[in-house]
Amino acid sequence: MATMRIASLWRLNGDSLELRPDLDRCEDPDLKRQILAFLSEGGFVLRSPGLREDRLDPSRPNAVPLGYLSDGEWIWPLETSYYLEQHDILPEQDLLDYMRARGYEAPKPDPTVLADAARLLTEG
Amino acid sequence: MSDLGEISADLMEVLGRLERVLARLTALDRNTLAAAQAEASCHPEGKRAAALIARARGQLRQASEGTIAARRAGEDWLSQHGSAQGGHSSGFDTPGGRAYFPPSEAKVREAAAALPAFPGEYTFDAHGSSEHVFIGEEALSAQDVAELIKADEKWEGRPVRLFSCDTGRGDAPIAAELAEILGVKVTAPEGRAWSSADGKSGVYPVEIRVVQGVVVEVPNYDAEGSWREFFPD
Predict the structure, then answer these.
(1) Could you tell me what percent of chain A has a pLDDT over 70?
(2) Which long-range contacts (C-beta less than 8 Å, at least 24 apart) are formed by B8-17?
(3) Residue B1 has pLDDT above 50, yes or no
(4) Are B179 and B230 spatial neighbours (Cβ–Cβ below 8 Å)?
(5) Average pLDDT, stretch B208-227?
(6) Closest residue in B to A79 (Cα–Cα)
(7) What's the CA gap between A92 and A41, in Å, rounded?
(8) How far apart are the first and last CA of chain B?
(9) I need a labelling partner for B25 at 20 to 30 A (CA). Which of B58, B76, B182, B228 fits?
């Protein structure tokens, strides 16, 4: 199995999750659009057909999608787009650098690569 | 759903009428107003009338541009939220039935299109909770879901599989009401439904894991949740 990087917005604090403190906010609408374009591409790894509460705004109980996409090199949660769109939270710096180097385009990987990504997340 | 259909239909009707009125005004403008304006401006007392006609023509142009903008806005809105024509524009055929995710969730749509059929059943695939099914920002009731299923000729009265999280959870979930309305067995998740690129699908609780030092939220395949069956009385 090829090594893939996994992106996440959260870190563990005891048993609960909290927003990673190293994530920056996006203040550039053009950059935001480019990142959202990348994040909506790739191929699907896992999905769950239900919406969850916004962890940063509990007044939105059915808002955030659950699942993962991948371009074969990185695996990122569907919620990455949501939190960027709604709260301007940028993905981690390594993923930002990676997207920029690829012109904000994410190819759709081979199905076997996506299946590997699914196994990495659930068994790795 | 029915509100959405009415709004879409009203919007299209109003825009259609406005366009017809503007077409008539434009014809009037070309054939009559220009000549009247030229004639009126020759007489001192007609100058005011000529100015009024010029103002009317300016407003006509603005109204015409406004109609085009309104139609574009209407089309954008419909492409995101649905259409007045039968069913729902976010709906699309899947191997087992039909799924409902807006175009903005392109990859989720691809995933839904890959979900295999449940033998002998009609699969309805959309974001769910114990009380509602969600399409974009719309919250659908059991009655709304029933209408969508009845409108699909591929249903053929078969038992229904709700591939929608939590739609079978609790004392009076949406799946129970749907079984009553449709008069068939409805099978729905008591928790989170999942489908995966490695071919697995089913009902499993969310598990927080740490993989490569990174927090992930994924199905726990060791703790299978359950599908629950609901029958009409």
Answers:
(1) 98
(2) B8/B78, B8/B82, B8/B83, B8/B84, B9/B84, B11/B74, B11/B77, B12/B74, B12/B84, B15/B67, B15/B70, B15/B71, B15/B74
(3) no
(4) yes
(5) 94
(6) B217
(7) 18
(8) 26
(9) B76
- Reported ipTM: the value is 0.95
Report the distance separating Cα B60 and Cα B62, nearest Å.
5
Q: Across the interface, do B127 and A65 touch by the CB < 8 Å criterion?
A: yes
Which residue, among A58, A78, A62, has the nearest Cα to A70 in the 3D structure? A78
Say yes or no for a CB contact (<8 Å) between B216 and A119: no
Secondary structure letter of residue B45 according to DSSP: G
Produce one character per residue of B108-137: b if its CB has 16 or more CB atoms within 10 Å, e if not: bbebbebbeebeebbbbbbbbbbbbbbbbe
- Poorest-confidence range of A19-28, B100-109, B123-132, B212-221? B100-109
pLDDT digits (tens, 9 = 90+) for B83-132: 433 467 889 999 999 999 998 899 999 999 999 999 999 999 999 999 99
- Please, are residues B105 and B80 in contact by the beta-carbon 8 Å criterion? no
H-assigned helices in chain B = 2-28, 34-42, 47-81, 106-113, 142-150, 174-182
pTM, 2 dp: 0.75
- Report which DSSP code applies to A26: P
The answer to whether the CB of A41 falls within 8 A of the CB of A108 is: yes
Chain A CB contacts of B210 below 8 Å = 12
User: Would the CB atoms of B112 and A77 count as touching at under 8 Å?
Assistant: no
Query: Shortest CB distance from B216 goes to which of A8, A49, A119?
Result: A8
**Tokens found for residue B198:** 């490695």
**How far from the centroid of its chain's Cα atoms is residue A89's Cα?**
11
